UniProtKB/TrEMBL annotation:
Transmembrane segments: none annotated. The lineage of its organism: Bacteria, Pseudomonadati, Pseudomonadota, Betaproteobacteria, Burkholderiales. It comes from Variovorax ginsengisoli. This is Glycosyltransferase family 4 protein. CDD domains: GT4_AviGT4-like. InterPro entries: Glyco_trans_1, Glyco_trans_4-like_N. Residues 172-313 form the Glycosyl transferase family domain. Gene3D superfamilies: Glycogen Phosphorylase B.
Length: 354
């Protein structure tokens, strides 16, 4: 099939450092190419891809040091190019929320839109009702709850390329890992509290966005002055395998309706179990007592720090290979592409794509 993938322009595809949606688009695009599909990737010019690249902005927005830049203007320029070339594709797969809806109304039936963010936000239900012809994909069943009547075609869990995150049978460190963003909803303060209560070292590899700088300085920085706590800062893919693979467990102590949680399956790829709060999609991703523990409070989290030692890292990796590889994700999306290209409407109640 001839497939267009349309990525956000905030990060490179794949991201050089932190980044979720663009990383998933990179894995999906390359996996589709490996399966023989003719894929064109619309993204920032610093992309690395096996697909045919098309870009209208030379560099992703976040790491562009230009003092003033417009994310809206950048995305509209990209969408103009997508619309100009759209007739060449069987399916156009968007990963930019609803930004393309007004421009692609006349061809909504040959598009697919994966929603990567939280949906419990004012104005979103009215928007998705107004443009209800666009087929949507959720990244977890929990993500759908604020908009159950939207035009859902399937839920497709994220997948990643295991070659970038090798399995670590015997970790060389005895620490807990926190990987992601320093922000109130990610709760690095809770991760620090768990580590201190359990008496186990914690390493935090995380970026600080400008919007979270005050939170970092006011809440988190004072907590870093502790012998068990080591703040590393933001890391890239080259360091991620060692960081996750050598940890006793990944802490995922979130305090928001997480739509998926990519870092959980990155840890699982390394064989590292996950200790995660019961929020959002966490219970869909973690098999309690198999790939980690889903907890409700600090006491359970501290107990889980010891309990993860009883879990088999081989089993954690095996579950990852069965459920969360880029190949598995590509197979699921290819099923949807064929339905769309053939004009099949599918079921608005369909859950995880088989």
């Amino acid at each position: 099939m001839k497939i267009a993938q349309v990525a956000p322009l905030y990060e490179a595809v794949p991201p050089r450092l932190y980044g979720g949606t663009e990383r998933v688009v990179a894995y999906l695009t390359d996996a589709l190419v490996e399966r023989g599909h003719d894929v064109t990737l619309f993204a920032a010019g610093d992309m690395r891809t096996r697909a045919t690249p098309v870009f209208t902005r030379r560099q992703a927005l976040r790491l562009d040091d230009a003092p003033l830049k417009s994310d809206l203007a950048s995305h509209l320029s990209m969408l103009h190019e997508v619309r100009r070339l759209a007739d060449a594709f069987d399916v156009v797969h968007f990963h930019i929320d609803m930004l393309h809806f007004p421009l692609f109304e006349q061809m909504a039936a040959k598009t697919l839109t994966t929603l990567h963010g939280r949906l419990d936000i004012a104005d979103l239900p009215d928007t998705y009702r107004r443009w209800s012809d666009f087929p949507l994909v959720s990244i977890s069943n929990h993500q759908r709850l604020p908009m159950p009547e939207a035009h859902w075609r399937a839920t497709v869990h994220h997948g990643i390329d295991p070659r970038g995150l090798p399995f670590t049978r015997v970790p060389q460190g005895n620490y807990l890992a926190f990987l992601g963003r320093i922000s109130p909803e990610k709760r690095p303060d809770r991760a620090i509290e768990i580590a201190k209560a359990a008496g186990v070292p914690l390493r935090l590899a995380a970026k600080v966005d400008a919007v979270d700088r005050d939170y970092f300085e006011r809440v988190i920085r004072p907590l870093l002055d502790h012998p068990l706590v080591n703040y590393i800062g933001e890391i890239g893919d080259a360091q991620k395998g060692d960081f996750l693979g050598n940890a006793r467990a990944l802490l995922f102590p979130i305090d928001w309706p997480e739509p998926f949680g990519l870092v959980m399956i990155e840890a699982m790829a390394c064989g590292t179990p996950v200790i995660a709060w019961r929020c959002g999609a966490v219970p869909e991703v973690i098999d309690a007592g198999v790939t980690g523990w889903v907890v409700d409070d600090l006491e359970q989290a501290v107990a889980a720090v010891e309990a993860v030692e009883s879990l088999s890292r081989e089993t954690v990796r095996s579950v990852f290979e069965q459920r969360f590889t880029a190949r598995a994700m590509a197979v699921r999306y290819a099923q949807l592409y064929w339905q769309i290209a053939s004009g099949s409407r599918g079921s608005s109640r369909e859950g995880i794509a088989a």
